Amino acid sequence: MYDFVIIGGGIIGMSTAMQLIDVYPDARIALLEKESAPACHQTGHNSGVIHAGVYYTPGSLKAQFCLAGNRATKAFCDQ
């Protein structure tokens, strides 16, 4: 019996599992993946570039979200 079952071992499934472990350290978590390894579909086929938002109008909402996402991604990777 598991407390949480996550379907998919891509970036979203793995990130969800990490967040659940942080919030519920004693929870029993199962991550199900149909492939033989994680990140075999969309997650494994992206360019791996952290988008900097250089093409958006400075100060626009898109630019602000892009910069915030860039910082959050770097902080997540450092963690």
Automatic annotation (TrEMBL):
| InterPro entries (UniProt xref) | FAD-dep_OxRdtase, FAD/NAD-bd_sf
Q: Which Gene3D superfamilies match?
A: FAD/NAD(P)-binding domain
Q: Name one GO cellular component term.
A: cytoplasm
Task: Enumerate the cofactors the protein uses.
Answer: FAD
The UniProt entry, under Pfam families, shows: DAO
What protein name is recorded for this chain? Answer: FAD-dependent oxidoreductase
- Which keywords, in A-to-Z order, does the entry hold? FAD, Flavoprotein, Oxidoreductase
Q: Provide the GO MF annotations for this entry.
A: (S)-2-hydroxyglutarate dehydrogenase activity
Q: Which domain of life is it from?
A: Bacteria
What's this protein's family per the entry?
Belongs to the L2HGDH family.
In this protein, which residues make up the domain named FAD dependent oxidoreductase?
A: 3-78
Supply the source organism for this entry.
Escherichia coli
